[in-house]
C-alpha cells in the first residue's frame, strides 16, 4: 500500500493527513511521522500499515482521554469507564479496555490523572456544601476513588462543627429549639451524612443532651 500524499492538517497543529492509495486517510501526529519515517510515495507493507493504524488508534484514545479530563476532573475508574463505554453510533467499536488503561497510565505519568488529588477535591467540595463524612464517603465510592485515598482526603477537610452549627442556626432562625425541632434537625443532619456522635454534640449546644438515637 502506497502513501499518495502526506499533508499537514489545516485545522489541527501537529496533525498530518496520510492519504493511502485505497482512499483511506490516516490522521497521524508528528511523532508517528517521525517514528515510522513516513513520506509521500512510501510503500507500506501490510505489517507496517497495521502497526501504523494501531499507533494512530492509541493516539486517538489518549486524545479522547485528555478531552474528557479537560471537561472536569475524574478518577481513573471514571475515565476508563467513559473511554470503554459503548458509543452511541452502533457502527463504531468500543475502545478496548487495554487501550483505555494504557491511556490512563500515560496521563498519570504526565500528572493529568491523580486519584489522591481527586479524592481531596471531592471531599473539599462536599464538605464546603455542608455535607458530613458519610456523604463524602458515598461520593468517593460512587466516583470509583480507591479506598486507600479516602482517609487522607477526609482528614484534610475542615472540622464539621462550623458547618453543622451554621445549618442549625439557619434552620432555627433565632427560634428556641424544643425537642421536636431538634429531632427534625437530627434527621436532617443525618440525611446530609453526618455521624450520630457529631450530630449529638452539635444538638447539645442548642438544647438537651441526647443519650440515644431515638429523637
Characterize this entry briefly.
This protein has 215 residues and is mainly alpha-helical. It folds into four domains: 1-44, no CATH class; 55-113, Arc Repressor Mutant, subunit A; 115-156; 160-205.
Describe what this molecule looks like in 3D.
There is one protein chain. The protein has 215 residues and is mainly α. It has four domains: 1-44, no CATH class; 55-113, Arc Repressor Mutant, subunit A; 115-156; 160-205. The protein has ten helices and three strands, in the order βββαααααααααα. The protein has helices spanning 30-36, 46-71, 76-84, 97-110, 115-128, 133-142, 150-155, 160-172, 179-191, 196-203, and strands at residues 3-8, 15-20, 25-29. A three-stranded antiparallel beta sheet has the order 1-2-3. β1 (3-8) and β2 (15-20) form a beta hairpin. 21% of the residues are buried. Mean pLDDT is 85; it is low at 209-215.
How is the main sheet built? 3 strands, antiparallel
Mean pLDDT: 85
Number of domains: 4
CATH architecture of the largest domain: Orthogonal Bundle
Number of helical runs?
10
Strand content: 5-15%
The Rg value, from CA coordinates, equals 27 Å
CATH class annotation of the largest domain = Mainly Alpha
Shape: rod-shaped
Structural class: mainly alpha
Helix content: 55-70%
Please mark out the parts with pLDDT under 50 across 5 or more consecutive residues, or reply none.
209-215
Write the H/E string, N to C: EEEHHHHHHHHHH
Going across the major beta sheet, what is the strand order? 1-2-3
CATH topology of the largest domain: Arc Repressor Mutant, subunit A
N-to-C terminal Cα separation, in Å?
78 Å
Subcellular location: Cytoplasm
Protein name: Regulatory protein RecX
Domain RecX second three-helical: 114-154
Family: Belongs to the RecX family.
Amino acid at each position: 500500500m502506497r502513501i499518495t500524499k502526506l499533508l499537514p492538517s489545516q485545522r489541527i497543529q501537529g496533525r498530518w493527513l496520510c492519504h493511502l492509495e485505497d482512499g483511506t486517510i490516516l490522521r497521524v501526529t508528528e511523532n508517528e511521522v517521525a517514528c515510522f519515517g513516513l513520506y509521500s510515495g512510501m510503500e507500506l507493507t501490510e505489517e507496517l500499515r497495521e502497526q501504523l493504524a494501531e499507533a494512530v488508534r492509541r493516539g486517538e484514545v489518549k486524545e479522547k482521554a485528555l478531552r474528557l479530563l479537560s471537561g472536569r476532573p475524574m478518577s481513573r475508574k471514571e475515565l476508563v469507564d467513559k473511554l470503554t463505554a459503548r458509543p452511541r453510533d452502533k457502527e463504531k467499536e468500543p475502545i478496548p479496555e487495554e487501550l483505555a488503561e494504557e491511556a490512563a497510565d500515560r496521563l498519570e505519568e504526565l500528572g493529568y490523572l491523580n486519584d489522591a488529588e481527586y479524592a481531596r477535591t471531592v471531599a473539599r467540595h462536599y464538605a464546603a456544601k455542608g455535607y458530613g463524612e458519610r456523604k463524602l464517603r458515598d461520593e468517593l465510592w460512587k466516583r470509583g476513588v480507591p479506598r486507600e485515598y479516602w482517609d487522607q482526603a477526609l482528614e484534610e477537610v475542615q472540622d464539621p462543627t462550623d458547618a453543622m452549627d451554621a445549618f442549625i442556626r439557619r434552620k432555627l432562625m433565632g427560634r428556641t429549639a424544643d425537642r421536636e425541632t431538634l429531632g427534625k434537625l437530627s434527621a436532617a443532619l443525618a440525611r446530609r451524612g453526618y455521624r450520630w456522635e457529631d450530630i449529638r454534640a452539635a444538638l447539645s449546644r442548642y438544647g438537651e443532651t441526647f443519650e440515644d438515637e431515638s429523637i
